[in-house]
Design brief:
heterotrimer, A alpha/beta (455), B alpha/beta (263), C alpha/beta (187), B: 263 residues, alpha/beta, Rossmann fold, 2 domains, 13 helices, 7 strands, 10% strand, C: 187 residues, five-stranded parallel sheet, four-stranded mixed sheet, 6 helices, 11 strands, 25% helix
Amino acid sequence: MSHPQRAAAFTSDAERTTWHDETLWFVRQKRDKAVYGIPEFQQLRQLASDIKEHTLSRLDEYLEQFEQNARANGVTVHWAADAEEHNRIVLDLIRKAGATSLVKSKSMLTEECHLNPYLVKNGIAVVDTDLGERIVQLREEAPSHLVLPAIHLKKEDVGETFHLHLGTPKGEKDPQALTEAARLHLREKFLIGEVAITGVNFAVAETGAVVVCTNEGNADLGVNLARVHIACMGMEKLIPRTADLGVFTRLLARSATGQPVTTYTSHFARPAEGREMHIVIVDNGRTRQLGRPDFRASLKCIRCGACMNTCPVYRRSGGHSYDFTVPGPIGAILSPNIDMRQHSSLPFASTLCGSCTDVCPVKIDIHAQLYKWRQIIAQEGELPAAKKLGMKLLSSVLARPGIYRFGGKVAREGLRFLPHGLTHAAAFNPWAKARELPEPPKQSFRDWYAQQVVK
Amino acid sequence: MKVGLFIPCYIDQFYPQVGIATYQLLEKLGVKADFPRQQTCCGQPMANTGCEQDAKPVYRHFVDTFAGYDYVVAPSGSCVYHVRKHYDVVEQTGAVQHVRQATYDLFDFITSVMGVTELPGRFPHQVGLHLSCHGQRGLHQANESEMTPVREGQLSRLLRSVDGLTLTELNRNDECCGFGGTFCITEEAVSARMGQDRVQDHVLNGTEVLTGGDMSCLMHLEGIVRRRQLPLRVMHAAEIFNAALQQPSKPVSTYVPGAVAAL
Amino acid sequence: MSSRESILAAVRRNRPEPTPLPPVADFGGEATVEQFTHWLHFIGGQVIHIDPAQPLEEVVRHLYPEAVRVASDLLPATVPVDAHTPTAVLEAVDVAVLRGELGVAENGAVWVPEANMLHRALPMIAQHLALVLDHASIVATMHQAYAAVQHTGHYGVFIAGPSKTADIEQSLVIGAHGARSLVVLLR
C-alpha cells in the first residue's frame, strides 16, 4: 500500500482526523509560543546547524575521540554496521548478563532496527517504559510519532488497552488514572533491574558522555536500578563539546512540545560502581546518506518531531500512513535512503509548503530534499507508469506553443459542452470527488488579449 | 521598462478574468505589459512530480520567450518561485540568469519594483487572505508564523489600504491549502481535507471574499466552495484591486463564473 | 575488517568538506529568582523561600507532614541511603531532600550531580523531591549552566520540575515514573 491509500483510510474517519489535526496543531502553537519568547532562537538554529554540519564533516575523528573517552570512563563501546548486527550485539550483552528481561526507554534507533521482535523471538521479555511506547507495545502497534508515540489513540482506546492488560476498571478513560495505573505497573518492572536499554539524544565527543532527555524519568529510573545499561545510538548523535549541549537543550524541547526544557536531561558517562555500561554505535545506512550531498543534511536531525506537528499532511494522515519508523516529513526524506522502492510514495506525500523546513531546529532543508528525492525516484523508474507517461506528454506539449494552445482550447471547450456527470465522475477524475472543476469561460485570456491588441 | 506578462496555463484557459485583471491593474498603475503569445508554462507540474529532466525543454522555452523583457510578471507566486528557485538545472546562460532574476510575482512587483504599498479605491467587503506557501515561505512576501507571529506582508498591506475592506482574522494564519500541484490528484483525500479545513476557517471567521495571490490555491479552494455551495466568493487579489480602482458604481467584476453566490 | 573499521572507512570516504566549529554561545539573559520561579511554576514545580537560619528538618516536616521515610544528607534522615542501598529500601522513600548545585532561570532546571544524589536512582524513585538551592547559584540560560558545570561528571541530571507525561491525548499528567512533586527550597 502507498501513502495515499493509507491516508485515505485515515481521513475517512473525519471526526478523528479533526481531533488528530487539532491536537497536533495545539502542540505546534505551544512550540510557537516558546520560540517567540526566545529572541535569539533563529541564531540558535543556525548555531545548531553549524555545529552538526561541522561534526558531520569530521565525523570519523569525533567518533574515535568519543570512543576513546567512553572507554577511559569504563564504558564498553560496540560498533554495528547494520540493524542485524546491532540486534545481535544487544542480545549477546543480555545473555552475558544472564538476564531474561529488560526495560527500555524511548529509542527510535531500536525501533528502526526492530529490536523488540528480535529479542522477543529470542526469549527476552522487553518492557517499553515510556508511557506512550508502552501503550503501543501492549497494542502491538508501531509508534505513530517521534515524541508522542500514541498520539493516534484516544483516551478510550488507551482505557480499553489498560483494562485488557493492566486490569484497570472497564470504561476508565481518565488520563490521570490511566497514567497512575501505568506508573504502578511499570514500577514493578523497574525494580527487577536486570538490563536497561536507552536511546541517546546527544553523545559528547570530548567527555564520552551520552545525554538522554525524557519527561517521565523512565530512562534514569531504568538505568539506575539495573545492573547493565546499554545505550544504543545512531552515529549522527555526536556533538563535539559539552558546551554545545547549551545550544541543543535550548532548542529540543521548545521545538518538540513547547516546554522550556525536558524534565530530565541526564548525562551518563561512567557506570555506577559494580555495574556495566555499554554503548552501541550504529551505522545502518547513515554512512551512505553521508555520501549523498543533497541528502546528508538529514543526518542533522535531533528527532524533535516539530516537522510532524506542523505538517498539514501528517496531521491529517496520521503517523502510520508513512509505514516507516520515522514518520512525517523527516521520515519521508530518511526512508528512501533505506529502501527507495518501498517508500517511493513518501516524498510525494507533501505539498512542498515548506513549513517543516521553517520549524526545523537544525535547519534541515526538508522540503527541498523532498523535491530532490522526487527527481531521483523518477529517474530510477519508481514513478507509477501513468504518471511518468503523462509528464512526458505534458512536457512535449508545453515545449510546443502551437499544440499547447490547441490542447488548452480542447480541454476548455470539452468542459463547457460535456455533461457534468461525465467531467466530474470520481472514477476518472479524482479532483472532482470533493471539488468542482473550474467553470470554463467562453474565451481564454490569450483570445481576449488578441482582441485588445486589434482594438 | 519592458514588462512581459506571464499568464500560467490554467489561468489562461480557466481564469481569464484573473489575467485580464492583472493586465488592467498594471495598466492603471502605468505599466503597459506585453503578453508574448508563444508562452506556455513554467514547467513546475512536471518538476514537482519528479520529472525535472523532462521539464528542461519547457524551461528553455520559457527563457526564450521572456529573455527580451526587463521584468516578467505573473499573478502566481508558485510559478515565480519555480522559475527563480528551480531553473538552476539548465545551463546558466546570461538569458537564464536574467529571466530568473527578473521574474516577479505581481504583488512583489507592485510593492518592491514599483514602490506602491497603498492602493486607492473602494471594496466594502470582508476579505479573507489565503497566504500561499510559495509566495510566503518561498519568496518571503510575508513573514512566516514558524519564525514570528504573522505581521503585515505585501499583500495584506495592499489589501488593508483599500477603502472599506476589512481583513479576516483567521484561526490559522498561514496553513497550506493542500493544492500542491499533482498532490491534489495523487493525494486526493488529504488534499481535499486540507482545503475544506482552510475554507472552514474563513467561513467561521466571516470571510465574504476569499482571496490570495496565487490562483492555483484559489482554484482548489473555489472547487470546494462551489461543491459545498458556501456563501463565499473566491477572487484573485488582482481582481479585487482592479475592481476597487474602477468607478464605485460599476459592478465588482464582469467575469466571475455564474455558480458562485452573488455578493 | 571489523565493523568499526569499515564504518570509519566509509565515513572518511563520504564525509563532506570540513566546515568550522562555531564558538561557544552565550546570549546573556536574566539570571533572576523571578525568572527561575516563573518557569519552575510553568513546568509544575514550586519555589519556597527559606530562611537559612531555620533548621531544614522543620521546613521539611511542615511541607510533608505525612512523610515517614525521608532520605537526605542535609538533615537528620529517617532512611539512610548510600550508593549500595537496596532497591526495596529506595522504593519506599517518601521524600528525598537533596542539594541542587545550580538553577537555570530560563527553564527552572536544577543541576544535580551524582555526588548530591546519595544513590543515582534516588531523585527519580522517591515519591517526592525537594532540592535545596542557593539563590546566588541561579544562572540565566543553559549556555551559562554548562559553562558553570564545566564537566558533567560520571552522572548528572538537570531536573526541571516533577516527572510528567502527556502521552494520553496530550493531557498533562504530573507524576509519571519519577517524583510526583518537585519543590525548590531557595535560600
